[in-house]
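This entry is listed below:
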Amino acid sequence: MPDDLSQSTTGQIPTNLRLLVLLERIAAEGAPVSPSALSTALDLPKATIHRLLATAEDEGFLQRDLDGRSYGPGVRLRKLSANTLSSQRVRTERLLVMKALAEEVGETCNLAAPGRYGMVYLDRVETHWPLRIQLPVGTQVPFYCTASGKMYLSSLRQDKLLRLLETMPLDPQTPASITDPKKLLDEIAATRARGYSTDDQEFMEGMAAIAIPICDDKSRLLTTLSIHAPIQRHNLSELENSIDALRRAGKSLEQIVL
């Protein structure tokens, strides 16, 4: 059997592996995929593809895109991915990297992954300071007003970003939250250009944060690495002085994941 199942053709993919190969293909695309594109890529009959998609959608592994035809990862596939990233060996190694970063910058660092409605915290290492922001693992925070969320938004294709912003509620979390879609697009463009994102009391008054992307070998965002602090200790400009340390830690995390 070939090592790369996604390149297999009809007759070479055992029946009991076809659903797995389909999920693998959709996950690898990084964008919603149409049934016809899957049929061509996997060299399987359209009827077979539609049957597999229906099964995966019913079980929550896939969900339809806004166009109603294409498919992307569903809740269960995203949880499977998060659990894989959280396997004991990988988690132990990444926590060591995050602990070293937290000690170097003197503030809490977080690893977050995009969920359906916001960024979900996968891991965090706390600062030693008694004054700190409590955002435990499993917390979901908005895309548009957090450093991790804006980093994710900056990784999207422009057409998908525009569709998402059309449906996303931009409720003010603080007086500094960016709730005007045009201004948010400008902020996302600036984020994309500089390679890191910021949160200047936009999600929580009195808190600043910066974040960078953790990417796969195709430069697609997997998670974000961020540090945040009460502005009594570090305002945004001071946090930005730690961007080199954040990027070094990010490179180490990418080597662990890959």
User: Anything to note?
Assistant: The chain has two domains: 5-73, 86-257. Residues 88-105 form the longest helix (18 residues). The beta strands are 62-64, 71-73, 108-114, 119-125, 140-141, 197-200, 207-215, 221-230.
